[in-house]
Amino acid sequence: MKIEEVESTKKWTKYGKNFVVELAHRFDGNFNIWNLYAYIYPEHKLFKKISCDKDVDMLPMHGGITYFRFVSCHENKDVFSHTAIQVGCDYHHYGDDRYQRKFDDDITVFAGDIDALVNALTETDGNVAEDLTAN
Asked: Which residue range forms the structural domain that includes residue 118?
């Protein structure tokens, strides 16, 4: 398992055909911050139906969606396109004390949430996801 730490952030990634699910951990000096993200690519059946966070409310996200953005790239100086839609949630709510510790490489406490999100994205697109890998 490859683990990459960038600016003290560690990420685990699960790849689907037209999406990626990512679990991210960082320590802000006081707390362990955990986030779960989905990157939905233009080939995914949901992509064209999404214009705001309310359009992905059906995705199973811990505590609901707390992060939403269009990932864009510039094709040239006047034209840009959306290359993905990123949605996410955090584990830093009232009552989330059990997530406020570092789990090292044991992320099984998040496995149910990861699997639920992967399954929802897989079912809405009709594809199969690959195994979770750390990077």
From this structure: 5-125
